[in-house]
Every structure is written in C-alpha cells, then in structure tokens.
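pinning this so it doesn't scroll away 📌
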Amino acid sequence: MSALLRLVLWKVFGPTGEVGWVALPAILLVGFFNDLVVLVFLNLPASIYLGVMPDRLARSRRHQRLFAFIVYLSLFGLIYLAQVEFFFFDEFNARFNLVAVDYLIYPREVLINIWESYPILRFLLIDGILAMLLTCKLWPQIRSAFSKPCSRRRRMVVIACHLTLLLPALWFSTDSLDFSTNRVTKELTHNGISSLFKAFHTNQLNYDVYYRTLPKEQAFVLTRTQLKGDGKFVDDKLDNLNRRHPGRGDGLGLLNVVVVVEESLSGSFTGLFGNPDRLTPNIDRLARKSLFFTRAYASGTRTVRGLEAISCSFPPIPSEAIVKRPGSENIANWGKVMKQHGYQVSFLYGGYGTFDNMNHFFSSNGFAISDRTDIPNPSFANIWGVADGDLFNHALDYFDQQAKKNKPFFSIIMSTSNHRPYTFPNGIPGIPAKGGGRGAGVRYADYALGHFLQKAKNHSWFDNTLFVIVADHCARLRGRADVPIANYHIPLLFYAPKHLEAGQVDAPIGQIDIAPTVLGLLGLDYTAPFYGIDVLHQQGDLLQQHPLLLNHNHDVAMLVDDRMVVLGLHKTAALYQYDWVTNTQRKLADDPQLFDLAAAIYQSAYELFTFRHYR
C-alpha cells in the first residue's frame, strides 16, 4: 500500500519538485526499507496477540472470523490513511509533519474542516468496499493458517525474533537513509506513519540538544554585534538584548495602528507580483496608494508563526511557535510598547481564539481579546470562523468604541476566510458560495478587505490611522529546496493616505521587522529586545546584512543577501546561494562564519525565551 502511494505521489508531485525517472529506483528502494521498519511496529501487536492466544481458541471458527474482521479494519485503515496522505501532500508538499500534529491537537476544527472540504462519505464507502474485497481474497489463507496446531514454544520463537527486530528499528528514523538534497525526493522516500510519530516526538525540541550551538557567551556576542546600530544597548550584559530607540522628530506621531493579517495570502496570488487572474483588484489598487514593500517574507508556514513574528519581533525557533509554548506569558511584544505610549491594545479574531492558544497568548501579553464569541449574529460562518466581512464589520464597531475614549488604539486583526473548505456568503459577484476553491478564497479575502477600508473612510478615526496589510504565511509550500524562499513571499502595505506618501521599498523585510519599522515610522521612543530592525531608517551594512529568518517543519534558516544557511536536526548546517530573479538555489561550500551567526541568533532566542529573559 505504501509503495503504491509512493508511486502515485511521485507521478503527481514529482515533476513540480524536479524529481525525475533517474531518482525513482533509489526512492522506491529506500522507501521500501522505511516501510519495512514501520511494519515491525505495526505488526507487533498482532505478533503478541497471536503468541499468547491459546491454540485451541485461536483455531476456533469464531476466532477466525474475529481475526478476519481485524484484518478488514487494518486494510480499511491503511487505504484511508493513504488517501489522507495524498491530500496532505497535495496541500503541504510533504509527509505528515508538525502541521499534522498541530491539527490533531485541535480535532474539532480539523475534522469538521475535512468533512466540509472533501466527499468523505464517498471515500469511506469506496475504502470499505476495497477492504472487503481484499479481506475476502485473504479469507482462504486466514482459514488455512489457523487450521493446523501451532505450539506455544514455536510462537514464542517468532515473538522473540520480532522483539529482536525492534532494536535496530528503534535506531532508525524516517529520514535516516536520506540520500538527496532535493526536499521532495526526501519526502517521497519517507513513510507517513513514521513521519507522524517523529513529528509528535519532536513537537517541542530542546535546541541545545538537536541543533548547532556555540558557547553561550559567543552566541550572545555575535547576536549583539548583529543588532548593533539598531538602537543603543541598555547595558553590557550579554543576555540582555534590550535597546533604547529614541523618538524621531520626523515621525507620524500617535496614529492609530491597525494590522490586518490575511490568512494564507501568498504574494503570487496578487497582481502586484504578476498574477494575471485579477484575484486581488483591491489590494493591487491599494498598493498604488501605500508604502509597498516588494520583498516582504513570512517567518514560517503556520498562522502562529506569523503572529509570533509580527507581535513579538521574535525569530521562528524550532519547532513550535512560542504562541503555543508554555512560558509565553508577559514577554516583550509590540503591544506592550504601544501601551507605554497610551494606546489601547487588542487582538481581534474571526474564529474561536482557543485554537492554537491564541487567546491565552495575547491576553497574557496585555492584549484585549475579541473573537468569534463576540460576534453573535454573523451573516455567514464555517468551522474556522465568521466570514471576513463579518469580522471587519465587528472591527469597525470595536474601533468606534475605542475612539470614544480619546486614546489611540493598536489592534491586530486575524482573518480566517481564505482557508478550506472555501465557503463564503451568498450573492457576491464572481465568488461562488462553495466549490470555488483557493481562487474564490483569495477573491473573497480581497473583496472583504476592500469593503472594510472603504467603510472605514466614513469613521472619525480613519484619517488618523495607519493600516498595515500583511499575510500570515503563503498558501502552499512548493519546491525542491529544504526552505523554498519563493513560497515565503508575501504582500506588505502601509496605508495612511492622510499621512504617508505612496512609494515602493525594495529592501528585504521579514515579519519580525514590521513592529520596529512601524515604531520608527511613528517616531516613538521605546526600549525592547526585538530581533527585527527598522528597515526604513537603516542604511549601510546593518540593512545590507540584516538577515531574513525562516522556519519550515524542523529546519530553520537565515538568508543574508543571496546566501542562505539552513540549520537542521542532528546539528546539521548547509549553505545555499539564492537567485532572487529565478528563485533557484544552489549549494555552496560551508561557511563557518555564517553558520555561527545563524546558530547564534536561534540559540540566543531559544535561551532568552526558555529562561524567561525575553522581557
């Protein structure tokens, strides 16, 4: 079953991942071995069960039927799992990974999402029929196997052999025999079941154990050197990255700030970056009136990664975002800085904020929370939350209330609509209520955002508001590279028509740079240990050598100019050259200096968070 799935995945997804015929024999051979290792574990319960079962009872007709039913359930599960793996690979270009673990932690949202997105009943019926046909074909063999006596001693020998096989099997991981630098090739050789268990095992990793490290003093010296020039360090303690940023006389002042985080809005979906399908006419039009960043990049591939970077200016340490980690309370964040300047601070979400621990994270860091529970009569909702239009209408009412307090407000709005099952309100021209797929999702997200900004113009607070439009991450991860950078490219716009001239910024900017850049634009003084910098007011080497920090599954990366370091499990490090024009990468010889800098940034961030010093 697994070998057949591997062939299907290669046929369907191999061409886009540049996996040709030449690699197929090795993929099948290594994959076959990985499947055998998994079978050692999958068949252990059956070995033990048959080993301890009394022979007379085992050979009874009733037990034969019971065992056939167990075989049927096993086949049914394997067939269904193969289908799930196919659709997961289609969505994430990978075997089961940390995303799958995240989804299993929240089964209600995920199961209903799957039910609404796919014809589950049809699949289950087909799976049941196939499993039944296979079981009927195996029934004569089952009867024959139980027709002759089998001594307990003989069965104990089999169990002993099986347990002996566990020893080398425990030593192997699903990626132990990786032979290629092509990420898709490696994913094809893996086994989905072992990949899932590995993801569970490594859900929250100790950085010091699994990743490249430096002596603590050296790590913080390199990190402080990298950040030197963006503010002034408050003291000489190596593990204190707090820097004072004086106010700027040319700043925009205490404007309201509304950060709209758009779900899964890849840069490639927009006309800004050459998409010919006119999916985002409102965003494309808005960019001509905004400060438009042409080279903005997400920190990761999950919503919590984007929120972590935007709200805390914090690197995407492996493997779980700090939004979901214990100890994320009362850490340094953008909202705290705004509060110090008299701002009202809030986080608005169209879904239930218990998902991905968002409500706890933001509320424990000083944000007022307003989520799905505060929107009692939406015009439309699905499992992920209310329609973006309803969320934005709620935001307008919420900001009206904040404006009455005669204090500026700062708010992060997290949308939900551009997500499976891609269902939307009826009656919107060009956007089917269901069945329109990702294209309809992007069109509706753009439509709702355009209406929000149009309506906002009629509110008293609009003229004194800076809108930041950004995506949380891209929709899909494609490409042969371990960290395919083109799939992190997102739109980023600063819009304040009464205060900010339209223009274009071509300097690379990551999500961790958004908070420092907005604070610099407003001209606010503050002290914080942020890893991001103000890209609008930095020049020379600091801007040129400022890294983009990226995460994918267990890997973390640092891109400086056109060179990218990838740090992986087992303390591995690799260097690639990235071509910004063709979006291609080629491997370079090791550069210990760059390796040390990347390790220093992620190691220092991990230590600051773990020991609660990111304050």
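📌 and the second one:
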Amino acid sequence: MPNSSPVKSSTLSVEHWIALLSLAGIGAYLPLRYGLAIGSQTYRLSLSAAFGPDAAPLFEQSFAFTFALAQLPLLAVLVLGGLPLLSRLLVKLLHGDLGADLLAGISIVTAVWLDEWLAGSLVVLMLSGGAVLETYALRKASSVLEALAKRMPSIAHKKTGDTLTDIAADKIRIGDTLLILPHEICPVDGTVLEGASTMDESYLTGEPYLMSKTAGSQVLSGAINGNAALTIHADKVAADSRYAKIMEVMRSSERYRPKIRRLGDQLGALYAPLALAIATVAWYGSGDVVRFLAVLVIATPCPLLIGIPVTIISSISLAAQREIIIKNPAILETLGLCRTAIFDKTGTLTYGRPSLIAIKTAAELDEAKILTLIASLERYSKHPLSGAILKAAEKAALPLLPVAEIAELPGQGISGLIAGKKIAITSRHAVAEQLPEVLARLPKVGGGLECIALIDGQYAATLQFRDEVRADSSSFINHLQPSHLFDRVMLVSGDRESEVRYLAEQVGIEQVHFSQSPEQKLALVRAETRKAKTVFLGDGINDAPALTAATIGIAFGQNSDITGEAADAVIMDSSLQKVDELFHIGERMRKIALQSAIGGMALSVVGMGAAGMGYLTPVAGALAQELIDVLAILNALRAALPPKTLSDF
C-alpha cells in the first residue's frame, strides 16, 4: 500500500474535527449573543510584568484586546481550528500555491484584526467544511483491496483419500486435491478431476457465458461455482493464482491514480492574486490601511468555498434520484472535459447473456419446426444456452410439444422423444466422437457459441449464439461525439477477437482491443489518459484496475462490490441511458458552478473596486459579500432541480 494513505486519513480526520468545532462554536455563540444577550465583559491580556518599564507599554498595547463572554466559543474556533488551517495555508504559500483557500486564510487574519470574529469563524467553517465535502464518500485504495480480499474464501476443502479437511487458503499447495462446493468461489487456479458444473468467470475474463466444467477443464481463482460440486487439482498456490494477480494490478493502479485539479482551485488561482492586487493598490493609493482591509473582507471567496460545493451536493442529490451513486464528487467538474470513452464489452454494451442469432438447418428442414422441437426439449435442461433458445421460441410464438424419455448427461447434451422422433442437442465435439460421419455436414465453426441438433441420429441444424447486444448500445455510442464531444471511442475486452469485433460492428466502434488481461487494460487506459481525459465504463472484477487508472471510472450495474469500490460513480440501474444522464448532470453541474463562482467573483470585484475607492467600509463590505453569497448559493441550489430531460439519445 502507498505510504501516503495514513497521512490522507489523518488529514481528513483533522478537517472533520475542525468543521464540527466550527459548527459547535458558531452554534453556541448565536444564542449566547442574540438569545441570552450575555453582556460584554472586558478581558485584557497583558505582558507588562514580563518586560521592562520602557517596553511594557508597547507590548501591553499590542496584546490587549476586548471581547464579550459570548465570544468565547468563537475564540475557541479561531484558536483550535483557525491556527491549524492557517499553518497549512502557510505551507501552500511557501510552495507558491495562491488558491482561493489561501485568500480565505488572509480573510481569517483580517477578520481577527477587525474584531470580526464571527466572520472569521465562518471562514474557518467554510475551509474545513469544503475539504470534508470534497472528500465525501471517496473510497481509498485500502477499501478496494479490502473488498477484493474479502471476496476470496479464507478456507478450502482439502481431500485426502476419503477424508475432507478444511485448511486455510494460503496453506494450499500445488498438487492438493480440493472440493469446490456448489456456489462457492474457487480459491486457486486448477484442473477439474471429478464432477460436472458451470462456473461464472465473466468478471475475471470477460467471457459472457457460464462456462461448463467437466474433468480436464481449467478453473480460475475467483470464479463462482454453479449448482454441482467439483473436485479439482491445485495447479497454483493462492498467491500465484489469477485473482491474486488482479489484486497486484489493483495496487499498482491505485498508486498512480490520476489527480483531478478542482474547479475552485483553478478559479482561485486567478481570483486570489487579483483580490490581493486590488487591496494593495487601494492601500498604496490612499495610504489608508482600512481600505486594504475593506477590500479583503468583500473579497472573501465564498462563491468558491460555498457556491461550488453546494452545486456539487445538489448534483449528487439529483444523481441519486436517478439511481446514480457519485462516489467521487470531483468527477462532476471533469465529466464534460473528457474526450476519450473506453468501454468494456460484457455487461456494459451487452447484457452478458447468450442470444440465439442464427439457426442453420439442413436443406430439407424448416427453421420454425426445428426451433419448436429444440425448445420443447430445452425447457427441461439446465444448460446456460437453454434460456436463449426458449426466449427465441417465445418471441416467435411457437408452441412447445410434449417430451418423453428425457436424458441429460454431462458433456453429452440432452435428448428425448418428441412425436416419435429422437431429438438430441449436443456439441460439435460430441458429434465428432459419436457420429464422425455427420461431421462433414456441419457448417464451419463461427464466432460465439454453438450447439448441434440431431433428429434420429441425422444432422438437423446448428444453433449459433452471441452475447446479446444492448438495444440502445448503437444509438448511445453514435451520439457521444456530437452530443458530448468525445474524440475517441474504444472497445477494450478480455473476450475473444471474434466476439469483440462482432460487437464493434454492431454498435459502430472502430478502435478495438480484444483478449486483454487486467494488466493490459491498465496499461492501455494509462496510455490514453496521458493523452486526454478518459472515461472508462466496466462491470467486471478484471475492470477494477482500469476503472481506477482512468480520469473517471464508471461501474455499470450492481454485479460486483469490488468494481463499485474502484469506481468514481456507480450506475445502479444497468442502462446506458443512465450513463448519459450522468454525463448531462456533470456538464450541467459545471455550468451552474461556473455561473455561481464567476458571477459571484464578478460582483465581488465590483465591490472591491468600491471599497478600494472608499465607498464601502469593512462592515458594509461584509454585508455586501453576504448578499453576493446568498445569490451564489441560490443559483447553486438549482442543480438539485431536475430539468425536463437528462438524456438526448
């Protein structure tokens, strides 16, 4: 883990405490001052006893000040909260960082100088509260890796003869015989020795289908077993298995996570020097230091410190109403600036389930009749492709016929009697072994998956399946450039070339990368992010490193807690329309934030000019700044109101 994580956590904790202290102090002051009307008793701090008679009056005058008893909570805020913040701002100043928060620090000092303790405490609250809001709901590298670690089983079932013993997963050795129970997660990479089941490897490999596993099949750590137990031979220890490698890539991707420069920092870098320049010119031109103070009071950057966070929170609220969870608020400022969109395939642009796309029948047979026979038999099967066949028959409104003598053997397919004919649905491999004379009649192997239908031992049809493409994928992809100004759209998948290219042709993506491991995805996303700001959309565990490496990572659906942890935003409802809504919410948030910030700063500049020329006193300037703040906040709250439409495709 990077060494910086504990420091970041500590910093966040301090800012939380300062924000809470500020709220408590201001909350205590207001009723004491205006509710209980506590009188003002003068307190004097003097150093006269520590110095000689000549120096004592000078220091006594410098350190003496008066305050009401009601101001004690504000004093606590300024001392316990303001001083730590000012020390950090001083470090920023030494590094040449003249941002909006630095101007706020000067405002704190100025407010204390003017005995405007409430104003100074409010600025402390704005500084600490803004930092807390900025990091609200941000996950850290440790949370992603913790989720990865929790997903893996800590216990494995080791077989020794007829004895079954539970051992720690990290104690598995190469050559051990392990039992994987139904619905368990495979602890190591291995080879099936006994049993027949299916495994869900989609989040690891990008393959969209449940993969059949029989004796001799390879299994991957992290894959989810199906309904039957499997006995496997451990080919690797846990630390060298596929899932552990993904964790290593995840650590690497977090270490080099791209940084987003905040909108407030960009504007503050321009606004702070301008405000200081106006204040200095006003002081120098008039010779009156009060004008310098008046300019700084009205220059307090509340439109940046409050207006932008309020806009972000309002946009987060709107997104939540649309079933979009914003985990990193900073992305709302950057979404509209991204120019490269990178998509995973399975579960993102596809549904991650097989769809029957073609039935190639023998010349003398009718396609509808064949589908009727096959669907009638497949309704009794648990094979992953049976659902696609039944859906196609339902769509064609075909009746299902009675079936007798049903038999389904692992690796052999399913068979039964329908209207006196023996119907068998099997694989090309099984046909080659049992009916080699039929093999010559089969069409060439194509992309996707297939199954072979036989009637009374004679070739009847080949059924071809592909990962089902989302109905709105093509329209979504093709609107990205004209509507959201994306220059490049890429498809990056761990699936096979034939599957990836098929999808790319269906949706209109030209730049394609297939058979990509998590390491390769990570390297590709890093390279693209160096060229331009990127958005990566994915839903698998193998996408987690790429989600972290992109400028903005968007997790699609609720399939993986790990993907959600790695992402900046999570689309809870698996719909590309929701992704488009997120783009629009981000673009709209930036526009409203700029309106609040730039509009507020423009009014502040006008006020600074008036204060610099002596038309506004520091008190009047503070009142004017409050009015500007109210206008900026009211405009920022518009971001929570849903527009008539949030999608344009």
